[in-house]
Design goal:
The chain is of the alpha/beta class. It has three domains: 38 residues; 126 residues, no CATH class; 184 residues, Rossmann fold (3-Layer(aba) Sandwich), CATH 3.40.50. Helices cover 38% and strands 10% of the residues. The protein has a six-stranded parallel beta sheet. Helix 7 links the parallel strand 3 and strand 4.
């Protein structure tokens, strides 16, 4: 009888935990939806003095407030020029910077509208801005955090989870071509597994590849591919010294993934952190160089898979929670990040389907 009561209590506790987690997720996503519909308009963000300063090509003939407003309405808005100095500071999570900020800045650069303006980003992000003079990139040493859309200083695409994503002022930098190299070349095709294990939506790790699934995937692919395994971790205390920009989602360290690899696949699977120790590159320099040489990816939902849009040909994604699936990200801007033809994405919402998708794509 006591064991029966214990079992019932355990089931009740699990149900309560799942209910609370779902409630928090619902509240968070509703807040995101509301903030999108209340987002700043061009009129709210426009600052006529900043507009003149940020666009030096108009200074000779635009000097007053009325002249600045007139130029903005007739020319600046159509070209989506910078109109407020706040637009040059990145204030969001890693994935947002990759998807929303950088393609807009690169659009300005390609159109000759970035001029000599300085961009403020987070620690370690300079390699992503290779198209900007190094002295014009300012890196702030502070943690990232999620910012509501009404507080984001972008006029178009200030939220990535929307149905009508605007590509007119969105040009992805050609990272694959720029960072392609002969340093990280192997005898077998390269495949990257990008995992994460951190707090999500203020609860617990959700979108992660557990040890059992990882073992299944490695045993299936290790002889066919040179696998590099990446998961942000502080077990070696190298993130801070190598230019990794942390955020509010605390990294957890009780996943036994590295231990699994070292005990069972040590001579066949390369751990990214080992490469960081071996080579004199920053975290993001090394990541860009490795990804530039790779077409094949196994990822989890979030910023890590957002990054792969610039490089992938085939990608298997584990997506248990998040808005990308319902808002069409995987069939939208995920497919527009690089020039690879016939790109394939397979998305799974549970572990079994994830392993099966990975097998179909790569085995």
């Amino acid at each position: 009888m006591n064991s029966l009561n214990t079992g019932v209590m355990y089931i009740i506790c699990v149900i309560c935990f799942l209910f609370v987690m779902c409630l928090i997720y619902y509240i968070t996503t509703q807040r995101e939806i509301e903030s999108y519909y209340n987002a700043k308009t061009p009129k709210d963000l426009f600052n006529w003095k900043d507009y003149i300063d940020l666009n030096p090509d108009i200074k000779k003939y635009v000097k007053t407030k009325d002249e600045a407003i007139n130029h903005w309405k007739n020319i600046g808005l159509k070209e989506m020029r910078l109109c407020n100095k706040k637009q040059l500071e990145v204030i969001n999570e890693f994935g947002n910077e990759l998807v929303l900020y950088i393609p807009y800045y690169y659009y300005l650069y390609k159109k000759g509208l970035l001029f000599d303006n300085k961009i403020t980003t987070y620690k370690g992000m300079r390699p992503y801005y290779y198209f900007v003079k190094p002295e014009n990139i300012i890196e702030k040493n502070k943690p990232r955090e999620w910012i509501a859309t009404e507080d984001r200083n972008l006029i178009v695409n200030n939220y990535e989870h929307i149905d009508n994503f605007d590509y007119k002022f969105w040009i992805p930098p050609p990272y694959k071509q720029h960072y392609k190299n002969n340093v990280f070349k192997y005898n077998k095709p390269l495949l990257i597994i990008h995992n994460k294990y951190n707090i999500e939506w203020h609860t617990a790790p959700i979108n992660f590849i557990n040890e059992s699934v990882l073992d299944d995937i490695l045993s299936m692919l290790v002889d066919k591919y040179q696998i590099i395994y990446i998961r942000p971790s502080n077990k070696k205390n190298i993130l801070d010294t190598k230019g990794f920009s942390t955020d509010h989602n605390t990294i957890k360290e009780d996943l036994q993934d590295f231990e699994l690899i070292r005990s069972k696949y040590n001579d066949k699977v390369i751990i990214f952190d080992d490469l960081l120790e071996k080579h004199n590159y920053s975290y993001n320099e090394l990541k860009l160089m490795i990804y530039a040489n790779c077409d094949n990816y196994v990822c989890t939902q979030g910023g890590g898979s957002h990054f792969t849009i610039y490089f992938f040909d085939k990608m298997s994604i584990l997506h248990k929670y998040g808005r990308e699936l319902e808002r069409g990200a995987y069939t939208g801007w995920y497919l527009k990040g690089n020039d690879m033809k016939n790109k394939i994405i397979k998305v799974a919402t549970n572990d079994k389907a994830f392993v099966n998708n990975t097998k179909l794509l790569f085995a």
